[in-house]
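Task: fold both queries, return tokens.
Query 1:
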Amino acid sequence: MTTAQRHIACFCETTFDADLPTSADMGADPEIEQLILDGSFMSLTCPGCGKRLTPEYPFRLTGVSGFGDLFLVPETDRGAYERNTLGYETGSPGRIAIGFPELQEKVLIAGLGLDDRVIEIMKYYLLTGSTSAADGEQEKEVGIVYRGKESTRHVFNIIGMKEGEIGVARLAEELYGRIASDVETRVKEDPFQDFCAPPWVSLRRITGASV
């Protein structure tokens, strides 16, 4: 793992320096996967107020099953990435994750040996079904996050449908299989080609959702 010193500012106005990772390899640094999945990756404790901080900085993870390289672009740089005006190089990663939650999700998907394009298409079907069911309500920014498998079902959290609540959807493995069977055809068609083209494979490309 390689690191760089970063200058951190807390909301309590305490500032301090900390070494944070800039790159790691899944094979050489096996503990990195669990750090990402349990949410402790890049987390710090402010020496002034004791608050847990989770700053985001560019980070490259290599040796990721199915992706090769996975590059984290901080959420604050999303606009610059979309405009192709990032102030740093991402190289040619197999996947881009924008923001830590998406990095966590991609690592989970890779660890389960799944195709993230299929997962994003499943999210699309959840989203279109959810929004059509919101009778008479104004359009909302709805985010959908993949949470893994429970037995033969894929679990998703739906965020933003109701204020202060997180919905849970469980989709059958059979649906995953049906989509996977012709995913190479689907990703060349509308609307899937708009959010399944690498390196940023994410439904957020068309929804604008923050998660």
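Query 1 returned. Query 2:
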Amino acid sequence: MKQKGLLIVISGPSGAGKGTICRALIEKRPKIHVSVSATTRNPRKGEEDGINYYFLSKETFEFRIQREEFLEYARVYDNYYGTPKKNVLKRLEKGEDVLLEIDTEGALQVKEQFPEGVLIFILPPKLEDLKSRIKGRGTETEADIKKRLDCAKEEIQRIHEYHYGVVNDDVDRATRDVEAILRSEKLKTNRNYQEIIHQYL
């Protein structure tokens, strides 16, 4: 019997480097599938349907919400964003690992619907480091920076709802920590029980 794939959910405050870690993880483990989100916003130049996003009308998205076709979704300003459930579950059944890089609210929705998921929270070494990273982008006003830091504090308070916390003081080391988590998860007996019974008994 084939072991199911892992649903890996990575979150963290803006500026913590979760995107960088996800990219490094995919470079090391190219077989990890990155889930494509759905949205009701219009495509930007160069974006392709089914590659960058699944672009849906508002009516279609709301119809799919009613049919519970999303692992998680949120409304951001005037647009919806969400993770289609069917594709993710299909890949997991085939034994493929699926990566979601989503915010805290979305991650906890996924946890509710799919308790077997592995929730990993990426932390900055200190809040001062987070402030420096955000400031270094040169795109945020002081008010924006304060808002992001306040949001980060709120998100960090919910870390107890995650399975793991990884401090990103060094991208290579943090990526290795995430890889170690995935190796450990794949060895858990509750994930391998049927396979073990089939092979040995």
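Both queries returned. Flag for query 2: The chain has eight helices and nine strands.
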